[in-house]
Amino acid sequence: MPAAETATAHQGLAAVADGDAEFFLRSPLSAIRLSPEPRKPERVRKHLICRRARVNTATRFTPMSPHETPEEHFPLQSVIPRALEPRFVNRYDSHEILLAVDGSCINNGSTTKIAVAGCSFTYKDARKPGIYSTFSQSLSGQDECGAVGFALEQTSPDGEPRVANSNRAKLRAVIAALEFREWQKEGWKRIVIATDLEYIVLGATKWLALWIRRKWKKVRKGQPVANRDLWEQLHGTIDKLARLGTEVSFWLVSTRDIVRQSSALMQETKELARDVAAELHDTSSQEPIGRMAVKEAPVAPVQPLHFAL
Q1: How many Å apart are CA 19 and CA 14, to the nearest integer?
Q2: Range of the domain at 214
Q3: Could you tell me the end-to-end alpha-carbon distance of the chain, in angstroms, rounded to an integer?
Q4: Lowest mean pLDDT among 11-20, 85-94, 131-140, 146-155
Q5: What does the buried/exposed string (b/e) look like for 183-204 if buried means 16 or more CB atoms within 10 Å of the residue's CB?
Q6: How many CB atoms lie within 10 A of CB 81?
Q7: What is the pLDDT of residues 79-126, one digit of tens each?
Q8: Phi, psi (deg, nearest 5) at residue 290
Q9: What is the 3-state secondary structure of 47-86?
Q10: Residue 19 region, left (φ>0) first, then alpha (ψ -120 to 50), else beta?
Q11: Is residue 9 part of a domain?
């Protein structure tokens, strides 16, 4: 599994994963740890891809029935001894699991207001809400939940400043979901990512190889590819899983699709991302203008703070 990624979160919110228990923590200048293992913080390595490198792109998932929602196609169940905890397992192939991802951004695309975004993913029972707590309170004995929400960092994996937007938030959620656990050690042959964003599905399954061959320029207009840092990070994760025997596929569940509208799993994952974004927005709006320009502006580099559980 790639090194644990620790990045500065916005004031007032962070998500921490400890085994199968996730908690949303409210604490000043807290930090977010997306991967439960290894524990020791390590420097994040940027995934650099050259034009001649082999590109392991993801595949596109086609459901057996176009009328089944994600949770109907992948009902929540335990496959012992593969995983003691329940997973969304494909009813037609018990070696495949589903991860639902989403993101939400407030002031998306604004040139006058600071954009803040929340990311979320669900890997087991999403009906149990995240638990809000503080570092001073004991986390032992709390109910487990299968939905993780966290703030989109305002820096790239190598520390460069980035402006938040909805595309970036959803792409970041995909990376976090895939790196959250060592899924291949549970014996899964394929991980299916359910998302409502075509940009992610086409980018991971079709465009990535073209971008690399064109030196990260768009095919039609020749402009630089947006979110290159996250695409490189995603490629590294997909490539590592492929070498370990686990395929990554993407299921496009369009927001206009009746299946998407009927899916409680997709709706609850979306609501969690919106809640995180709203929390961030409420926190930043309470800051004095002078302080917010320094602490919240995406152009201001911030040093990550580490903590141990």
Answers
A1: 16
A2: 47-131+143-288
A3: 20
A4: 131-140
A5: bbebebebbbbbbbbeebbebb
A6: 8
A7: 887 778 899 999 999 999 999 999 999 999 898 999 999 999 999 975
A8: -65, -45
A9: CCCCCCCCCCCCEECCCCCCCCCHHHHCCEECCCCCCCCC
A10: left
A11: no
